[in-house]
UniProtKB/TrEMBL annotation:
EC number(s) stated in the UniProt entry for this protein: 2.3.1.199
Descriptive protein name: Elongation of very long chain fatty acids protein
Keyword Nuclease: no
Lineage of origin: Eukaryota, Metazoa, Ecdysozoa, Arthropoda, Hexapoda
GO MF terms, alphabetically ordered: fatty acid elongase activity
Species the sequence originates in: Parnassius mnemosyne (clouded apollo)
PROSITE patterns in the record: ELO
């Protein structure tokens, strides 16, 4: 397709192909809608929490749903979405980092204001945090253990990403790309497990390690952003102080929770640990596999 966009080719990579829906992306329309409606996310969170506790109560004395085919489709669709998102946002991220440096990658939101491809997939990333709540629906209906990290992560990522989109938070370039890449591996793993194909334990550990790395990098980006804002001319770094504080608190809390989970799942000498982190093949209707949420922490954001 011809690249008819008014691109600054110094800022955007030279895409070999641009889809029509990407070419038609107008970021101002989405920002206007999100600015007027981002607080709707709090209603989604309310419904989500009501489902969690109400659903668990309802399922307490009822047989679990299998939902195996549905789960395969769900995880495969999210894996495909994440892989596509990573493939479409990584080129802009690498191009900017290589040609314009760390400051631009953290402080200039050209990834959404000047790049229709990256802008479209950043917007889809933000909107996807609502349907991703469906991960928890499967856990509740299949009567799997639901740990705090899972639903806390879902809630905070949804609220933070919707709020940040209204500000065009420039550091989100890092958060979006990291999350897409981690989710590409994570949901692919879930898809394989839901099909009854169990990858080696090392892959599961790698996913949690990638999640931990994402949290460390997220904290580092916020520290850099804070330093840039303190030394650069006023308003030259497109991040608000409140956003840095929220993001730092969120990423640090994720790191603590994921580190605790990693230790408990892989390092703690707890009897029966292996059964939780290295499931063995069995009949789909069997109930003995208990992942304890592993690594079904839907990491997202994040961000």
């Amino acid at each position: 397709m011809e690249t008819s966009m008014n691109y600054n080719l110094d800022i955007t990579p030279n895409y070999s192909y641009i889809f029509e829906f990407e070419n038609e992306f107008i970021h101002q329309n989405y920002r206007k809608w999100m600015t007027e409606n981002w607080t709707v996310a709090f209603y989604y969170v309310g419904i989500y929490m009501a489902f969690i506790f109400g659903g668990q109560y309802y399922m307490q004395n009822r047989p679990r749903f299998e939902l195996r085919r549905t789960l395969i489709i769900w995880n495969s669709a999210l894996a495909a979405f994440s892989i596509m998102g990573a493939c479409r946002t990584l080129p802009e991220f690498i191009h900017v980092l290589r040609n314009h440096g760390l400051y631009h990658s953290i402080c200039v939101p050209s990834f959404i204001e000047q790049d229709k491809v990256s802008g479209f997939w950043t917007t889809m990333f933000v909107l996807s945090k609502v349907p991703e709540l469906g991960d928890t629906v499967f856990i509740v209906l299949r009567k799997k253990p639901l740990i705090f990290l899972h639903w806390y992560h879902h809630i905070t990522v949804l609220l933070y990403t919707w709020f940040s989109f209204t500000e065009y938070t420039s550091s989100a370039r890092w958060f979006v790309v990291m999350n897409y890449c981690v989710h590409s591996v994570m949901y692919s793993y879930y898809a394989l497990v839901s099909m009854g194909r169990y990858p080696p334990k090392m892959l599961a550990m790698t996913i949690t390690f990638l999640q931990l790395t994402q949290m460390i990098v997220g904290c580092a980006i916020n520290i850099w952003a804070h330093n840039y804002m303190a030394t650069a001319p006023p308003h030259s770094c497109h991040i608000s102080q409140i956003n840095i504080k929220l993001s730092m608190a969120m990423y640090f809390s994720y790191f603590v929770l994921f580190a605790h989970f990693f230790y408990k799942a892989y390092l703690s000498p707890k009897p029966g640990k292996k059964a939780k982190v290295e499931p063995l093949p069995e009949e789909p209707s069997a109930k003995k596999i208990d992942y304890n949420g592993y690594p079904r922490q839907r990491n997202g954001v994040v961000h």
